[in-house]
Amino acid sequence: MNAFEYAPAPESRAVVDIAPSYGLFIDGEFVDAADGKAFKTLSPASEEVLSEVAQAGAEDVDRAVKAARRAFEKWSALPGAERAKYLFRIARIIQERSRELAVLESLDNGKPIRESRDFDLPTVAAHFFYYAGWADKLDHAGYGADPRPLGVAGQVIPWNFPLLMLAWKVAPALACGNTVVLKPAETTPLSALFFADVCRQAGLPQGVVNIVTGDGSTGAELVAHPGIDKVAFTGSTEVGKAIARTVAGTRKKLTLELGGKAANIVFEDAPIDQAVEGIVTGIFFNQGHVCCAGSRLLVQESIQDELLEALKRRMSTLRVGDPLDKNTDIGAINSAEQLARITALAEAGEAEGAERWAPSCELPDTGYWFAPTLFTGVTQAHRVAREEIFGPVLSVLTFRTPAEAVEKANNTPYGLSAGIWTEKGSRILWMADRLRAGVVWANTFNKFDPASPFGGYKESGFGREGGRHGLEAYLDV
Amino acid sequence: MTGSYARRYAHLVTMPTTVPAYGNEAAERLAPMADVTASDAALRRFLHGLPGVDAVGLQARAATLGTRSIKTTAKAYAIDLAISMIDLTTLEGADTPGKVRALCAKGVHPDPTDQTVPQVAAICVYPDMVATAKAALAGSGIHVASVATAFPAGRAALPVKLADTRDAVAAGADEIDMVIDRGAFLSGRYMSVFEEIKAVKEACRRADGTAAHLKVIFETGELQTYDNVRRVSWLAMLAGADFIKTSTGKVSVNATPPVTLLMLEAVRDFAAATGVQVGVKPAGGIRTTKDAIKYLVMVNETAGDAWMTPDWFRFGASSLLNDLLMQRQKLSTGRYSGPDYVTVD
């Protein structure tokens, strides 16, 4: 029989023009690092060098913070409606340039174009639109009359959703009247630098947004700089703890959005086909590089066999490969370092006796790849059930009763998100009351909206991003 | 899903391979399921025990599959496959022998300028046009499908529906497209719907022991909920449907991607549970090549290879064929022709 093979359907790279090198965006200008240092950024799918980017040192961070401080006075004094105009303009430019930015994001990050095009970019624009709407309504946000901004925000973001995490940080900060110095992740600096261009296109006053690229040392300089009033970080719990130690005892306000080990709980009366989709979305969306990924599947023991059979069948249809191919479901792992971490944890899972399964799929020869993987026979005592893997690896555990499901779901140092699958509404409410997780999804997973606050319990961090609650992190309240 | 049924019955059924619903073996495969259709109460418990359908999730999955980008060689393959899966249909009060013969000619040579275009799967007509179609298609291998059982409303007494079916079969119909009694289904009389399908299946038998294939039309636009669609799919398959079909094309909501996806899940699960393969036919509202390809992607990624043939998947359509032909010409010549370069029906 002649199988229906999908021919390659690559999105064109021609829509994006990447310069051979980029400087730091400080005070409205692109400038080289003071000491001239630079680093290369790769496409994780091909290991091709995309561009060379300046490595900001202490002196550069200082210049950026001072520029933001100078800009703060005028920016914070603008009426909210005026700040809103800039944010609306940025949102519209992002929409207009969304194809270019989506291709860029997939090139630099390795995520499939289907996701950067259909999820990342629309959500980025929506976030700016949403907070543009708040800028002149802060009096009504529930923080008293005329709440004041904090000042200069130092923001450090991760590589999993480079532009979206930028939007989550920059949009509420600017809406509230703060100015920002943002450090994108070392492996994914390009979309933030293109965002700098968007700011210029929108006529945003100089110094309101500054972007300093670099590795962890740049982030450490920024967080420790005495001239900033607020630190916002999204990333690993380990780095988050280090930042909390740095900031302790200073006047700086802090919000942290850290790791997770979310339970996706499937009851025997769940809509099974949709639950399978939700499990796949929960752990394989963005190669599992999602802090709220549903990396622990808790399935009621009575339906374990049929659910796993359906899940394996579905996983066999996942298309792993070129991120720019419009039919790719799973793209490249973001870096060699992350690939090594996922590989090591998966090996630990096997060594501890969990059963490993992956569909047969051909992985490209160059670049960083990891096949979608399932571990069954996992218990609470296994490392793959406790540690955040941040990759396309799902650990399957079972439970017998709702109480046991809650107990196991909560038995983690993290508490970012959880999912419940059941056709019984009362059980959803009962579970949601008891799960210690910042977000609880019912009969869906990994759904985001700018109007909905997002954030964690326990070692998943504190503070909320998104919604009215997200304003609090950038207001002096 | 429904694997619990698969497991429960696995010890009763040995399944080396799946068998077609229209063969003699299907009845043996379904025999172990007899207890679920033993009484109205048992059938109700079974159908209501099927996993629920989350509407938002189902629609999201159908939409995601709709974003697949099918290009070049894959597109050429899909277009020819789609043409070969068409039940080219005319179901009008104004149908005449001339109109039916014209449609048959088109079914045999969809593009008179290009003999490499495959012929369609079947010509679908009202029962009184079966003989005309049969004569026009003689020797072509194209099936004649006839709607029956008081199509499209199905509001007639059972003897009338059976007579309607027998007439069509006697006139030479290879396939019968029956409508279910939606009123009975919506009022919860599942057993009545079940018995009626069984009776029509029986009426499809010919004197020589062969039988016309039976497609069962649900009119999903009238059943409305996805839970109903899953239940009626299982009900019809248990009753012996060879194909399950979405719609008559005569109501405002016809085939939709989510409904078709759900029916594809049902045939997949039914084959896993019983070893019997049943086909799927979306009908009504599928007019463009782009739409047809989206459906083929759904078949490919839900039911799989075994359903990617005209034996197991059909499009109930009329205007779709011309769009497929125009896209086919575009692929081979690199430019669009126009409606004057394909034949009117």
UniProtKB/TrEMBL annotation, chain A:
Segments forming a coiled coil: none
Domain Aldehyde dehydrogenase: from-to ranges: 30-476
Keyword Oxidoreductase: yes
GO molecular-function term, one example from the UniProt record: oxidoreductase activity, acting on the aldehyde or oxo group of donors, NAD or NADP as acceptor
Domain of life (superkingdom): Bacteria
Family annotation (Pfam families): Aldedh
Family, as annotated: Belongs to the aldehyde dehydrogenase family.
Organism field: Streptomyces palmae
CDD domains hit by this protein: ALDH_F16
Name assigned to this protein: Aldehyde dehydrogenase family protein
Keywords for the protein's UniProt record, in alphabetical order: Oxidoreductase
Positions of the catalytic residues: 257
